[in-house]
């Protein structure tokens, strides 16, 4: 025993961790990602200076990686990946040393067998636990991904690992410097990682446990607090940097509060936030599985638990053996990403600390079994041959587990790592860049695609040729200031350098229209929104050039044959060169397909076979583009080719419900089936995992099935995206020769766009084919209104009036027709005609309050305020609570100088509508005319408190200055 301790122990504690680190370094260098991935993309963007918001968190990582910011931008991804690999290697070295330092005196059996100083493992196989712990941790998929892709999490884990190592080192040599350094590192970690705040009570408990009452020594506590405070001082770095920034106007204390509030919210609310695959019970299970084994071997258990009989001792020993074995198996299962692991429970945070603790437990428990079940000449209660047989069986099982675990992890995770760190993402970026011009402005509402494109352009030396814009960030003035800093010659500085109010869509469209005069505007993927009300997207391979619409149509031109041929050639090339490795991951397995031996074993062990997330996301990028291209091909009339594209889009993204619906309808078209358009009762019920139209269209592309096109068009109308709505309704019209609602919407939208000829053309189509369209009375009135309004827009009021009067003469008792005619006259400023028509209507329904109010309003439009009072009073006689009638009557009284009556109506309205600025304006005018200065000031000030109109507000402010005797 002494010989083993002297010769082997030093190597296991001091030399073996370095060998483990060297082996891990070799593995990670061989599998290192040479470029960006979707895992390291956020950190690459931050380090390269591609983010526009100030960095208010993770100050320790910022300091540690700051030298990488001096590298050429194209080298930053590789530099970050190497830094992360170095952190992983050091963390695994700390893990190996920590396992070697774990005491094996927790149970009676261990204390009987291990007599070395500090109860460190001194058996010949003492090297096995550190190596196994490092292997299973280093080959765990999440750990491996973060080790070969530059992330903050791996740096956080290194700090966490060092703290554990320092606590174990203190147990060996008793030097307080280990604890002081641990406190310093823990404080640094708290500024960088919210999880360290969660571990703070555990850290304090561990300090109390290992020091005992000496922990409460005042001098010791003061030095520990000072070390923690020095570490926590890093909290001040991000606010300091943010306060000095000329981009975002945020002061020091605001920035500090943001970071602290973010960590607080995550700590207190993250476990309570349910996701689609997670509830609070899963969170508890995950924590217990990873933390409970550590607590089990942290306690030095007594030799007996009350029952000193041989049977009691034997049962307690067997139960403890069983618990240790169960913990060992569960921890190994967790590292294989069991269903309860963070990877499969919907968390976006990797929780590397949990995996690390599980590996630490595996190291201890494997050492426990290697120590306790050795065949030693110790007097036992069972016959010696049986004891030897049991010991050998247990050791064989442990040996099998510690061997098969790393091998299984390697077989399971190496293909995933090869895919993640392989060329899939760079192939996509290269394919995307093929369609780009020599220079221009690139837009995207997907930050991932924008950053990937930026990284590729930096890699190929073309970054300075383009202005790259995140359309979601364009609404914020700080982003505009940063763009001016990036592109001083191409992007003008905002006139108000301190502006914080977001830009309105109208001003952004104007800005883009101005830029389009000097530069080509390109979108990196299919999209929709207010930019596409003024520009249409012409496909150039994977990217789209934005071009201005013509002045005489709401619809974009059809794609020219040369452009079709160019894109067809591109997609053929992409399918041959780039899509095969993506399809290998994303294509659904054939029903009944036979699993391989490894997959069968994983399935038996209830280990989910996951798809590679990076390949899945890249597949979704391709899928959306293919769905849009399939629509273009289908519009050109080639249904067979369109079917292939829709099918390929589904193979690349099984969740692309839009491509699935488009393919099903394409199949009907190829079969010659044009069934009547049926609108789904609840379109949202068929969105699958998506919740809104924005999510469905943003992730999958557009619908090309008449029912969904109609619903899509109606959604665009509600969002005031009228041109895009017209395109959807036009697609419905193309699919169906008998659909009336789509034609009515198209006619309405063309009229709104001041294209009356298109409206009249659609009306003519409906009226010329009565056999195809069944018109109800409502439809006829709608057609009449559209036709009359179109003639008004064409500056043909006589013809419009003739059409309306003819219809009224033909059906003089049709109240709906009279309402329609009155509305058309009123909207087009024909108030005398509107008044005549509403008088006809009142002869039919003299006590209709709505008609009476409308007559009063029309009279007010021609300044006949006295005449307006009579119908409004009649309406109030019929409905005393008709507040609209009372409000218009108050205005009419005021305009006709009947002050008392006007004041009475306003005062009746005021308690019911205490925030209505119009009422305060009227009362203020009455007081002003009566020269009641105090009352006028009071009412005008109340008006300004609630007012909205800008020009009227200016007038009131001027009047207030006059009343108060101030100089204008």
Describe this structure in words.
The structure is a single chain. With 968 residues, the chain is mostly helical. Among the domains are: 2-420, no CATH class; 424-555, no CATH class; 910-968, no CATH class. It is 66% helix and 3% strand. The protein is built from 44 helices and 5 strands. It has a 5-stranded mixed beta sheet with strand order 2-1-3-5-4, sandwiched between helices. α9 packs parallel to α12 (218-232), α16 (310-335) runs antiparallel to α17 (352-372) and α30 (706-718) runs antiparallel to α31 (722-735). It is elongated and about 115 Å long.
What do the pLDDT scores average to?
A: 87
Can you summarize the main beta sheet? 5 strands, mixed
Q: What's the number of extended β-strand segments?
A: 5
Assembly form of the protein: single chain
Distance between the termini: 100 Å
Q: What share of the residues does DSSP label as strand, in percent?
A: under 5%
């Amino acid at each position: 025993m002494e010989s083993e301790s002297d010769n082997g122990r030093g190597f296991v504690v001091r030399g073996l961790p370095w060998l483990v680190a060297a082996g891990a370094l070799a593995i990670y260098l061989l599998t290192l990602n040479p470029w960006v991935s979707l895992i390291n993309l956020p950190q690459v963007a931050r380090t390269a200076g591609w983010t526009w918001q100030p960095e208010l968190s993770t100050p320790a990582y910022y300091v540690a990686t700051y030298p990488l910011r001096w590298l050429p931008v194209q080298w930053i991804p590789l530099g970050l990946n190497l830094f992360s690999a170095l952190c992983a290697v050091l963390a695994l070295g700390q893990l190996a040393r920590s396992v070697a330092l774990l005491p094996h005196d927790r149970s009676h059996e261990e204390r009987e067998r291990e007599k070395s100083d500090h109860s460190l493992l001194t058996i010949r196989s003492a090297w096995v636990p550190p190596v196994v712990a490092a292997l299973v941790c280093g080959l765990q998929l999440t750990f491996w991904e973060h080790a070969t892709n530059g992330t903050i999490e791996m740096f956080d884990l290194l700090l966490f690992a060092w703290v554990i190592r320092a606590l174990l080192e203190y147990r060996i040599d008793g030097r307080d410097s280990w604890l002081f350094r641990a406190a310093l590192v823990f404080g640094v970690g708290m500024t960088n990682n919210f999880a360290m705040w969660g571990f703070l009570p555990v850290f304090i408990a561990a300090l109390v446990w290992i020091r005992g009452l000496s922990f409460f020594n005042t001098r010791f506590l003061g030095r520990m607090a000072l070390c923690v405070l020095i570490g926590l001082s890093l909290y001040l770095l991000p606010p300091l940097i943010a306060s000095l920034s000329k981009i975002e106007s945020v002061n020091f204390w605001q920035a500090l509060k943001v970071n602290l509030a973010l960590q607080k919210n995550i700590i207190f609310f993250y476990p309570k936030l349910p996701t689609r695959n997670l509830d609070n019970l899963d969170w508890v299970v995950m924590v217990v599985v990873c933390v409970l084994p550590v607590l089990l071997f942290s306690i030095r258990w007594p030799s007996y638990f009350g029952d000193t009989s041989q049977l009691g001792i034997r049962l307690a020993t067997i139960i403890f053996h069983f618990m240790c074995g169960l913990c060992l198996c569960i921890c190994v299962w967790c590292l294989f990403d069991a269903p309860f692991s963070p990877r499969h429970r919907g968390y976006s945070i990797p929780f590397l600390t949990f995996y690390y603790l599980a590996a630490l437990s595996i190291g201890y428990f494997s050492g426990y079994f290697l120590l306790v079940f050795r065949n030693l000449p110790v007097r036992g209660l069972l016959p010696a041959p049986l004891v030897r047989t049991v010991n050998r069986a247990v050791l064989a099982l442990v040996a099998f587990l510690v061997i098969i675990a790393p091998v299984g992890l390697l077989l399971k995770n190496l293909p995933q790592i090869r895919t993640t760190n392989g060329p899939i993402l760079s192939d996509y970026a290269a394919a995307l860049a093929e369609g780009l011009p020599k220079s221009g402005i690139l837009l995207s509402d997907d930050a991932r695609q924008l950053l990937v494109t930026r990284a590729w352009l930096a890699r190929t030396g073309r970054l300075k040729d383009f202005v790259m814009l995140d359309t979601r960030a364009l609404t914020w003035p700080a982003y505009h200031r940063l763009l001016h800093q990036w592109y001083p010659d191409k992007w003008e500085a905002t006139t108000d350098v301190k502006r914080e109010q977001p830009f309105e869509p109208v001003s952004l469209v104007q800005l883009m229209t101005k830029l389009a005069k000097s530069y080509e505007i390109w979108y990196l993927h299919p999209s929709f929104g207010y930019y596409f009300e003024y520009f249409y997207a012409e496909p150039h391979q994977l990217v789209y050039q934005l071009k201005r619409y013509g002045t005489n149509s709401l619809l974009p031109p059809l794609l020219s044959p040369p452009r079709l041929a160019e894109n067809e050639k591109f997609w053929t090339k992409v399918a041959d060169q780039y899509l095969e490795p993506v399809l290998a991951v994303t294509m659904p397995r054939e029903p009944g397909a036979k699993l391989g031996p490894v997959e069968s074993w994983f399935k038996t062990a209830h280990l989910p076979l996951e798809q590679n997330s990076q390949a899945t996301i890249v597949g979704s990028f391709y899928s959306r583009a293919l769905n849009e291209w399939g629509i273009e091909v289908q519009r050109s009339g080639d249904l067979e080719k369109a079917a292939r594209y829709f099918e390929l889009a589904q193979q690349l993204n099984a969740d692309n419900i839009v491509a699935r619906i488009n393919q099903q309808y394409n199949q009907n078209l190829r079969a010659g089936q044009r069934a009547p358009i049926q609108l789904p009762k609840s379109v949202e019920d068929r969105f699958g995992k998506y919740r809104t139209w924005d999510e469905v269209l943003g992730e999958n592309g557009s619908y090309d099935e008449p029912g969904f096109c109609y619903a899509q068009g109606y959604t665009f109308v509600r969002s005031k995206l009228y041109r895009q709505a017209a395109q959807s309704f036009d697609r419905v019209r193309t699919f169906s020769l008998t659909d009336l609602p789509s034609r009515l919407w198209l006619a309405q939208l063309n009229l709104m766009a001041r294209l009356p000829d298109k409206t009249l053309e659609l009306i003519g189509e409906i009226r010329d084919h009565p056999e195809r369209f069944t018109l109800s009375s409502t439809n006829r009135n709608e057609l009449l209104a559209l036709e009359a309004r179109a003639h008004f827009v064409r500056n043909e009021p006589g013809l419009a009036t003739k059409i309306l009067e003819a219809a009224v003469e033909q059906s003089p008792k049709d109240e709906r027709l009279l309402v329609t005619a009155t509305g058309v006259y009123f909207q087009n400023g024909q108030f005398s005609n509107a008044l005549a028509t509403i008088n006809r209507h009142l002869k039919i329904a003299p006590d209709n309050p709505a008609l009476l109010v409308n007559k009063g309003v029309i009279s007010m439009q021609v300044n006949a305020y006295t005449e307006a009072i009579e119908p409004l009073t009649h309406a109030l006689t019929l409905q005393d609570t008709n507040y609209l009638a009372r409000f218009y009557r108050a205005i009419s009284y005021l305009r006709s100088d009947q002050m008392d009556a006007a004041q009475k109506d306003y005062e009746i309205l005021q308690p019911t509508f205490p925030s209505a600025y119009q009422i305060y304006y009227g009362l203020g005018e009455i007081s002003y005319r009566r020269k009641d200065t105090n009352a006028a000031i009071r009412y005008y000030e109340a008006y300004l408190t609630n007012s909205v109109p800008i020009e009227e507000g200016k007038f009131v402010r001027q009047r207030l200055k006059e009343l108060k005797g101030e100089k204008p």
